Amino acid sequence: MDYDSILDKYCLCMNEIKLRIDSIRSFIVDKKTTGYKYTDTEFICLQFRKILELIALANLVSNSEKYNKQYSNFVNHYHAKHILRDIEKINPLFYPVPIRHVYDKELEKKGIKGRIEEIKEGYLTLDEFTQIYDECSDFMHAENPFAVKKNLDDIRSKFPIWLDKILILLNNHKVQLIDINRQIWVILETTDKNVQAALFENVVKK
Known about the structure:
Structural class: alpha+beta
Strand order of the largest sheet: 2-1-3-4-5
Largest sheet: 5 strands, antiparallel
Strand content: 5-15%
Number of domains: 1
Oligomer: single chain
């Protein structure tokens, strides 16, 4: 497999996610507005939906060879939930795993700066991914005047929570490839603004 190409494409998806996160922050934190509360809400929902789609497409990139063998038209796939559903059939461990660096005094004595551990809570789970995707999709269409009016304040109150969960998931994460001995490790928040990613290989083959 062309792992360099996989890393490049994965980073492209993550870099676009960073830009869309910045757009969301400009509305939530900097209080930017279109001048109309409804279009503000629609804009933010669109960014969240695009971010979720990019998470799905990034996972499609990391599983593309095997996926392509079963779904020859995968280049035209865009629906996030459908992509994740199909990838899960091929690679059940596909979903990003959030990680963090932990200072360890005993390890430091041995010249090791720390250890990596998986984050167990607070991140965007796969179930939440589906729920948020559906909620944002509801705002992609004009409101039916005969339907129950949508509660803008309710969904807007969720935006900061969703953003935090996405950041915990992606800031530092690893992605399991179909090859059980290979993973992609990713740093989203970097000082130079560019996403960093590296291929890790298990030296003790499973």
